[in-house]
Amino acid sequence: MRAAHGLWAALALLLLPAASRALRDGECEVCVTFLGRFYQSLKDNDVEFTPASIEKELLKSCKEAKGKENRLCYYVGATSDAATKIINEVSKPMSHHIPVEKICEKLKKKDSQICELKYDKQIDLSTADLRKLRVRELRRILDDWGEACKGCAEKSDFIRRIHELMPKYAPRAAGARADL
User: Fold this and answer.
1) Count of CB atoms within 10 A of residue 102's CB?
2) Helix or strand or coil: residue 73?
3) What's the pLDDT band for 74 if we cut at 50, 70, 90?
4) What are the tens digits of pLDDT across the range 124-170?
5) 61 φ, ψ (degrees, to nearest 5)
6) Under a CB-based contact definition with an 8 Å cutoff, are residues 114 and 31 in contact?
7) What distance in Å separates the CA atoms of residue 81 and residue 179, rounded to the nearest whole number?
């Protein structure tokens, strides 16, 4: 009888931590998305799945990353200014084709900040009233496009710049706005 209770207690202790380690929906959003795209690009470009080649490609991808994805690269040590280097925690499991969700779970144990990254809410430019947005949000739109607004002092300057660039970066939104 005691042995059965002890067995059940041991089984419960083994199963409880495993459930808490699994990623929940929306957790590690940036990590899972970025590494998923990265893994797919490796397969599409027929890159050899060795830790060294994956590391090399990850460093290349991280040079082009912006925003939250760049922050993820910083946390794993794939940027030049990173303080820590845990790139091998990505490249080695990926070379064995381990799912990105599992890789992100492992990274979460090393640095919990990795899974705290979330993408910023996207602004629908076709329906958004730019005059009601904050300057910070207007600036973020331009940053996402890789553009700047030099000499912009007022909100109206940022709005004017966004309207100028909208046909280039968001043609559907520009067309929808022209219909309004």
Assistant:
1) 12
2) helix
3) very high
4) 888 889 999 999 999 988 988 888 889 999 999 999 999 999 999 88
5) -65, -35
6) yes
7) 46
